[in-house]
């Protein structure tokens, strides 16, 4: 399985990946990363925050962008070299998050792509915004 090469891509190409965030996802992410912030794993404490309940880790949502880049655009063989992120709204357990990537710049001589990366919840609200830099497979 091989992703798209620079020659197979163009400005405006898009791909997406969608997933419903579960409680299990949040606990597994907490265990893998060691981020046991009560905002994610303790309902009583999380209710005292501005979010009034538990939220998923921001990087869990951002990880869905990695799925788009590594599996769909450009796809397998892609090397992720950079990411700029803005967390705009919380992702809650039960939210269905759609991660999207769009090619916005091609630096052919360096085999680099710049992609606009966004995540939206089931209501269409943007929860994460940013840009990724990747090296597509050769």
Give the structure's gist in a few sentences:
By secondary structure, the chain is α+β, with helices and mostly antiparallel strands.
Give an overview in words.
This protein is an alpha+beta fold. It has one domain (6-135): Thiol Ester Dehydrase, Chain A, CATH 3.10.129.10. It has helices at residues 23-33, 38-41, 43-46, 58-71, and strands at 14-20, 79-87, 96-107, 112-120, 126-135.
Key phrases:
Thiol Ester Dehydrase, Chain A, 4 helices, 138 residues
Please name the CATH architecture. Answer: Roll
The total beta strand count reads: 5
Question: Which ranges are low-confidence, i.e. pLDDT below 50, for 5 or more consecutive residues?
Answer: none
Indicate the CATH class: Alpha Beta
Sketch the topology as an H/E string, one letter per element: EHHHHEEEE
Helix proportion range: 10-25%
Distance between the termini: 13 Å
**Which value, in Å, is the CA radius of gyration?**
16 Å
Class derived from helix and strand content: alpha+beta
What best-fitting shape do the alpha-carbon axes yield? elongated
Average pLDDT rating: 97
Domains counted in the coordinates: how many? 1
Q: Which secondary structure elements does this structure contain, and how are they paired or packed?
A:
Blueprint lengths: L13 E7 L2 H11 L4 H4 L1 H4 L11 H14 L7 E9 L8 E12 L4 E9 L5 E10 L3
Antiparallel strand pairs: 1-3, 2-5, 3-4, 4-5
């Amino acid at each position: 399985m091989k992703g798209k090469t620079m020659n197979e891509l163009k400005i405006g190409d898009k791909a997406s990946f969608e997933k419903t965030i579960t409680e299990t996802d949040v606990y597994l992410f907490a265990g893998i990363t060691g981020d046991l912030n009560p905002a994610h794993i303790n309902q009583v404490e999380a209710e005292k925050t501005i979010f009034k309940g538990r939220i998923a880790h921001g990087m869990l949502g951002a990880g869905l962008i990695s799925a788009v880049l590594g599996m769909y655009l450009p796809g397998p063989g892609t090397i992720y070299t950079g990411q700029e992120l803005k967390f705009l709204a919380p992702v809650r357990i039960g939210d269905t998050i759609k991660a999207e990537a769009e090619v916005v710049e091609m630096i052919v001589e360096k085999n680099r792509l710049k992609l606009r990366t966004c995540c939206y919840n089931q209501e269409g609200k943007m929860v994460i915004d940013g840009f990724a830099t990747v090296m597509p497979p050769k």
